[in-house]
Fold:
Amino acid sequence: MKYAIFLGDGMADDPIESLSGRTPLQAAATPNLDRMARGGRARFGTFLSLPEPFPTSSDAANLSVLGYDLSESYQGRGPLEAASQGIVLEPDEIALRCNLVTASDDGRLVDYSGGQIRQDEAAALIETVQKSFGSDAVRFHTGVSYRNLLILKGESFTTDFHYEKPDDHPGDPYADLLPRSTGSAESEGTASLLRSLTLNSLNLLGDHPANRARESRGERPANMIWLWSAGRKPRMRSFSDLYGKQGAIVSAVDVIKGIGRLAGMEVVEVEGATGYIDTNYEGKARAAVDALGRNDFVYLHVEAPDEVSHAGDLDLKLRAIEDFDRRVIGTFLEAFGDLDDLACAVLPDHPVPVALRKHTRTPVPVMFVHPGARGDAGGLLYNEIDAPKGSVGRLEGDGVMRTLFG
Structure:
């Protein structure tokens, strides 16, 4: 038996008036999901991926889907992305996510992704930031597009400070959202440095040649950095230790690949995987099929629905869901064959309603398909409205993995 999770990041949503009260999952053309739902083997339920008190962040959500105890394994997004880049954190080092963002002249956070900046442009900007601000204690590392990394080294730095997720605050004034102290001297020193780096980056990057070129093309400049989700090296049990199975992860983004590396899973690199709607969907699907030839389980993660949901773009969200169905699941099933030897689950890691443009804690819809299983009756399809009616009920903790492997 082989096992797969098809994860469409941020697919879940709320009913939308312009879609006649349907959700994007209901309105999109998803013939492969519909075929799986109607095949007589599908069971439905929901999953609480973002429990309190953990942040509404994809790192916590994907760890939840994979069944990791967040109280033991969660350390923040920065260390996961460091692991993806092969950076081994020392005991006196902390890692932070470093977004390239767009700030307006009147002090507002316009775009958490710097206009979905291209990889070559992002690398040039981070190189400039490192040359200007880098030291033995401060190191910037290029990641994927706007998703970059800062490593702080020294006993005086702490992870104990307040921060805000940039994708939670489109259009908000950023002055009050910058890192702030929790009261200790270490906290104030760390937060003060991060505020200084952020504000000074605005002066540094505003007139950068890469940004001038972007503006000449009518694109948003990535004219400021945003530092958040700090942590030290996490302690994670291996996936094989947890479940007695060998696993692989296919994803474009460092946070998911970092989870895979720390979990001792095979991390599959796919040429042309961008983390946006121009990603190599078919290549990722074929890579997942190949990975199952070497492993018991594959986690196929697609970032695109999340990105366009944060942009509030309903048309692109419908397109991303349809691409996920046709170009990912369709390609995978065509290459793998029938489902007689595959148990699988389909779900997002969290909702991103296009009206809100940020993550919510609403339990996500999940569909399980097991060979030989008796599916739910009643003609249920995979969406936010039908899934809660299914026999699986509401899952928490390691419920997705337990149900998949059960």
Observations:
- The first strand starts at residue 2 and ends at 8.
